[in-house]
Amino acid sequence: MPITVAFFDTKPYDREYFTAAAATHGDLELRFLEHRLTENTVITAQGAAAVCCFVNDRLDAKILTRLRDAGVRHVALRCAGFNNADLAAAKELGLAVTRVPAYSPHAVAEHTVALLLTLNRKIHRAHNRVREQNFSLAGLVGFDLHGKTAGIVGTGKIGRLTAEILRGFGMRVLAHDPFPDAVWAAQHRISYVSKTELFAQSDVISLHSPLTPDTHHLVNEPTLAVLKRGAYLVNTSRGKLIDTAALIEALKSGRVGGVALDVYEEEEGVFFEDHSDHVLADDELARLLTFPNVLITAHQAFLTREALSEIARVTTENLRRRAAGTPFLDGTQLA
Ligand code: NAI
What is the pTM of this model? Predict the structure, then answer.
């Protein structure tokens, strides 16, 4: 009997890569749904043995209970972050929760650096100008990354790769992590410092810590106050690491020199969708979009062929393992 899986919030690329991964065994019946998992849509999981969810699907205790009542036994997150899932509630309900902890840290680190280079050298603005036959260079002055200081907050898989790439540009790299890796740091001539020191000394700060109660609004008014004037901030981790209202004030005052975001505090329901025909209701996002020194991509750092293949491979394998009662792939089980 095939295992029925309800896939929430799916896009054409999800369908393409998951269909290919499922075809290798032919034992999964994939029910692709375009809507996100919310209180209103949880009913559409009825009859499925598992659900496959993404970063903006809601997995709070109430929704998990309704999933369990609908017959679901496995929540397979097709992402690395799991801040949207109440793991304690899942455990209590007997729901297994898995994720894909490391589908391609390279994809995210490379996008981080792409954002930084684009922001600094104003490639997005130059591209638009040249297409309009405006070949003027006024306002496009950047700075050499070589010799500047980068601060990496969170030196897990993605933070380390980002740090190593920036070392390759000849940057001095500072790092902050509650679990520092001295061997790695010495190998790459990277220094661990306190969060305050990192904010005070860095020309470029890149966030790579997960969203937890400790890291919520890690960038806020007090941290922005110690920032080196004109420093750049890049966030490809989770939107809620930044207090957006405080960031807007720091942009207005010039304390922050530029911001590149792949994630946004209130991205749920906005990112991943085409809203070009609608009025933007989010005033803070609208304000961010007015700054010439703010660059935003809509949570696409993971979007490479390699990452999508690996996400589909790991997730489909875990879906089979749950049904067969065999252990999940190493490091993928959360509850
Ligand atoms: P990881 O688990 O390998 O590393 C996270 C690091 O952050 C760990 O070293 C941990 O000790 C550190 N950390 C925890 N609390 C901290 C704190 N208070 N201050 C500083 N560091 C702290 O995770 P990985 O794979 O490097 O991913 C990092 C984050 O990137 C994920 O949690 C996820 O939110 C985000 N992500 C974003 C993607 C995108 O498409 N934009 C795709 C994949 C991940």
Answer: 0.94
